Amino acid sequence: MIAIYTRQSLDKKDSISIQTQEEFCRREAGISEETHVYTDRGFSGKNTDRPAFQTMMADLDRLPITKVVVYRLDRISRSLLDFADFIQTLEQRRISFVSATEKIDTATPMGRAMLYIVAVFAQLERETIAQRVRDNYYARLREGSVGGGPAPFGFRLQKIRRTGRLQTIYAPTKALSLVGQMFSYYLLPGQTLSSLLHQMQTEHPSLFSSWTTARLSCLLRSPVYVRADEDVRLYYLAQGAAVLSETSAFDGIHGCLLAGKDGPHPALAIGAHEGIVDSGLFLACQQKLHQNRPLKNSGKGKYSFLTGQIHCAGCGHAFSVRLSACAQGKVAYFVCSGRYLHHTCALRQTHRVADVEQAIGEAINKRLASFSLPDTVSPQTLSAIESRRALLLQRLEEDASLPSAYIAHRLADLDQEEAALTQGAAPMALPDFFSLSFEQKKAVAACLIQNVILGPGQIRLCWK
């Protein structure tokens, strides 16, 4: 059986129709061969997350398919990695691959070589297009034009002609006057996001009834509302943002456009719209928001002192603890979040919490035994004895009436005390790790361990 796969993202005049693709593939397959056609309409080739394609991949194990035929390589995917995974799957099942118009057949060595060469150029074309789109996006930002997406609260999108072409900018609405009040209210003593949200929902229920504190926080962090000046520019430079506009553009009048705020490389530019919040008020709000960030929910595990430190060797996700009922009662197991929550990990592994903790505890004991610990006698203790000795000698010199026998006796006591401390002192011993309380074990593990990597039959401990 021969599988024919066809795909068309958009139905345009200059695009190859599904029917045309199928005709080419059938001629390549041969009239006498039994065929099964898989068709995806309206799906891009940027990845393989397409229903008909996934059905075909499942049928490779279910049906006696010996060959997969497509009109052209990019019908499968424009991603080199996705395409390589697809070809590897076919090779594992001894299924050949044919591109009808490019005359590539993986049944021959030359066909396999040509296949990967063409795939590399397909990936290059896709990355070039993506780079061109990014460059065009940042060019619009530099000109003060909106890069895309809906308008923020208090603004609407407006198209105007600037620098000889049509551009999209933010235009104010009546609701914008509330934004200045929200920034001012937030800085009041004792005001929190929750109390501010409650106040706005009480005063303006029609506008804020569906808002959350997360959305309110995003509004207060947005530089679109600030009258950006040099202080704002320096603030975002310190935050690691790439400033696209010239320094002179930060005139204390216009607001900002922030792109990629959730990514590793955000970019800031001055917009064509005017801001409504003074820079001092805006920056004060940023400082308060930063100080009031919620703490991470780390180290609160109650089933293991290793909670939050264990990660999967396959997908990198953290392990959590699940309880399983058995004849001995409930037994705690470490399970991979990538497999059971996100469904992205293919590793099958089972780890009892008690077994992992035993192995890690023994390793910690060995680690502690290797440390060179100081004696129990501190320099401060010896210095105090010497000071007392000097004081006794000074008093004897100042007052000759003091009984010399008494002074001699006290000096002898100090000598004995010093000798006992310096000669009989033993190195300080640490308690056994397993004798510590649960909270103490968590504290020691947090100080010593960077992370623990679990894999099938594998425990890899990384120290700090």
Short description:
The protein is α/β, with parallel strands linked by helices and 464 residues long. The chain contains 15 helices and 16 strands.
Your description of this structure?
- The protein is of the alpha/beta class and 464 residues long.
- The protein contains 15 helices and 16 strands.
- The protein has helices spanning 18-29, 51-62, 80-92, 109-142, 176-186, 193-203, 205-208, 213-221, 230-238, 279-291, 337-340, 353-369, 379-398, 404-423, 438-448, and strands at 2-8, 35-41, 67-70, 96-99, 104-105, 155-162, 165-172, 242-243, 254-259, 267-274, 310-312, 319-326, 329-336, 351-352, 449-455, 458-463.
- Strands 2-1-3-4-5 form a five-stranded mixed sheet, with helices on both faces. Strands 8-10-9 form a three-stranded mixed sheet, with helices on both faces.
- The longest helix has 34 residues, at 109-142.
- It starts with a strand and ends with a strand.
Mean pLDDT: 82
Oligomer: single chain
Major sheet: arrangement of strands: 2-1-3-4-5
Main sheet? 5 strands, mixed
Give the overall shape, derived from the CA principal axes.
flat
Distance between the termini: 57 Å
Q: Give unreliable regions as ranges.
A: 295-299
Alpha carbon gyration radius: 36 Å
The amount of helix comes to 40-55%
Note the main attributes of this structure.
464 residues; alpha/beta; 5-stranded mixed beta sheet; 3-stranded mixed beta sheet; 43% helix; flat
What does the secondary structure layout of this molecule look like, with pairings?
Elements: E1 2-8, H1 18-29, E2 35-41, H2 51-62, E3 67-70, H3 80-92, E4 96-99, E5 104-105, H4 109-142, E6 155-162, E7 165-172, H5 176-186, H6 193-203, H7 205-208, H8 213-221, H9 230-238, E8 242-243, E9 254-259, E10 267-274, H10 279-291, E11 310-312, E12 319-326, E13 329-336, H11 337-340, E14 351-352, H12 353-369, H13 379-398, H14 404-423, H15 438-448, E15 449-455, E16 458-463
Parallel strand pairs: 1-2, 1-3, 3-4, 8-10, 11-15
Antiparallel strand pairs: 4-5, 6-7, 9-10, 12-13, 13-14, 15-16
